[in-house]
Design goal:
Elements: H1 5-19, H2 23-33, H3 40-53, H4 61-72, H5 76-82, H6 91-99, H7 107-117
Helix pairs in contact: 1-2, 1-3, 5-6
């Protein structure tokens, strides 16, 4: 029996938050588990077993970028200070070096990113921009 993708997504979201995984990391876990389960209950049980044995996974620059863009919708200037980098004119360069692998992702940065992915928020957490759908009324051909 094939499990509905929406059910898989909702079920895996809990594990993703608990472990502080990015969407691509939880996708790897699901792809490993899915062939061995037949329904939602078995999927939940398999994910719970995975959670018990999961170990801390260091982050790469690519995963930092994925978290920043796809999970938090932050710019480099917004996310850099949350990872412990000085808020300066070169923050974009620092984040670029980190995300492109030119600078090593330290354990502190990795743990902070995992904590944020798991739902922890510091008091100075920036507001994420509300993504609004473009409206036909917003386009004025006479401007």
């Amino acid at each position: 029996m094939k499990i509905d993708p929406d059910i898989i997504d909702r079920t895996a979201r809990v594990t993703r938050k608990k472990l502080g995984y990015t969407p691509s990391e939880i996708k790897e876990v699901i792809e490993t588990i899915l062939p061995t389960v037949a329904d939602r209950h078995e999927l939940r049980t398999a994910l719970e077993e995975y959670e018990k044995t999961a170990q801390y996974r260091p982050m790469t620059g690519e995963l930092i970028r994925e978290a920043r863009k796809k999970c938090f919708f932050f710019t480099a200037e917004q996310f850099g200070p949350l990872l412990g980098f000085k808020d300066s004119g070169s923050i974009r360069s620092t984040m670029s070096n980190l995300e492109n692998g030119r600078t090593e992702v330290t354990e502190m940065v990795s743990r902070l990113a995992r904590a944020y992915l798991a739902g922890h928020r510091p008091p100075d957490w920036p507001q994420t921009p509300k993504l609004k759908k473009p409206s036909v009324l917003d386009k004025n051909p006479h401007q």
